[in-house]
Amino acid sequence: MRIIAAGLNYKTAPVDIREKLALSEHEIADMLAGLRGSKSILEGVILSTCNRTEVYAVAERREQFMLDLAYMMERKYGLSKEQFAASFYIHEDNAAVEHLFKVTSGLDSMVVGETQILGQVRDAFLYSQSLPATGAVFNRLFKQAVTLAKRLHTETRIGQKPVSVSYAAVELAARKMGSLAGKRIVVVGAGHMSELAVKHMQARGADGITVVNRSYHNAAQFAGRHGIAASSWETLPELLSGAELVTAATGAAEPVVSAAMLRTAKLNRSEPLLMIDMGVPRDIDPLADELDGVTLVDIDRLGAIVNENTDARAKEALKLTPVIQKERNDFAQWMKELGVAPAIAALREKADAVRESAYQDILKKLPELDERERKVIGKLTKSIVNQLLRDPILNIKELATERGGEDAIEAFTRIFGIEDEAKRLAEPNAAESADGRDIRNAIA
């Protein structure tokens, strides 16, 4: 059983590739169902954000998983085999676990130390869990990743200094336009990135901001929170005619600002227009950059500004490497112990069955026993069983984590005659043992 992380991000794929794989929840569910249906994976979580799309999998065979994933990417999302090979990376086992911990903590982000990714990883896990597409391994791993990320952001300075993509967008605008006071600004989209952008704009003196959103209700609420104007979606072309700065982050599947819309707007204006597209998929037609007087900056070009402000965070991130590695090792230890859990659970079941049979024989032979005496005998028989099992269980848990652990587990099951039951409990769908206890309790 392998843990695999396969995906692409802002470092390995340009935005025109990444936007092909900006997956909706429906597409994520469909992909996980396909991979599980082909037996490529036992568990799966898919993380899809502006800057990365990653498939985390518990798989029996790495090669089959990657073949099925590449086929799915080509057939459903138009990613050629050459593009897949050039842009996708793969991490396995300890490296995959460490990668997830770094991603969740913001250490692998374009904006080092950003916290938005923490919520995105948590939501991706919870969605996959609800399908359900996760099991014992990922339920443990992703909860550990989220807990670790929260601790690192609380206990370190990794999240200090504003270096978000939204900050970078406003920083770029200020460099090109000078003061933002008095500038006519249109914010397209009323989500988290736009929220941050408006805060940074206002910190730089912006006082002429109008927000536009497909839902006017959401735009009005957004405007009320920040003391700015709101306008209906239908007024966007008119607003573009008078705007000096436009930012966009909507989450739409296709560009919401077309080149044709901008050509019409240009007929009614003389000032230059700076447009900053923070969305993936892109919200502004890339052809807009070819129009006279229009400067278009996409999310990849913002990366250079982000990098200027990450030195302090990068230094702090280096200090976190030992913490990440310790957490990785802790999980690896848990995984080794998890491998012996079915054998221990099978032994407990067999021992409990023997004890219960003997206990019932005693009751039949001594019918005169009262309730108190029966309880005393029941407790004594349970105590005897627990004492007899204690050393074998402790020893096999220790042996399972050493070299040759699988051989030790096999010998353990043969000695106690529990091979078949241990195999049954090790099946992916055998989340619980026959008496209803989670087999993970066997290693507690």
Describe this structure in words.
- The record marks 99 as: Important for activity.
- One of its GO terms (molecular function) is glutamyl-tRNA reductase activity.
- Residues 323-418 form the Tetrapyrrole biosynthesis glutamyl-tRNA reductase dimerisation domain.
- With 444 residues, the chain is α/β, with parallel strands linked by helices.
- The chain has three domains: 2-161, Beta Polymerase, domain 2 (2-Layer Sandwich), CATH 3.30.460.30; 165-303, Rossmann fold (3-Layer(aba) Sandwich); 328-443, no CATH class.
- Helices cover 56% and strands 11% of the residues.
- It is built from 18 helices and ten strands.
- The chain has helices spanning 15-18, 25-37, 62-77, 81-87, 94-104, 116-130, 136-155, 165-177, 192-203, 216-226, 236-242, 259-266, 299-308, 311-319, 321-365, 371-400, 405-415, 419-426, and strands at 2-9, 43-48, 52-59, 89-92, 185-188, 209-212, 229-231, 245-248, 273-277, 294-297.
- A six-stranded parallel sheet has the order 7-6-5-8-9-10, sandwiched between helices. A four-stranded antiparallel sheet has the order 2-3-1-4.
- α15 (321-365) runs antiparallel to α16 (371-400).
- The chain starts with a strand and ends in an 18-residue tail after the last helix.
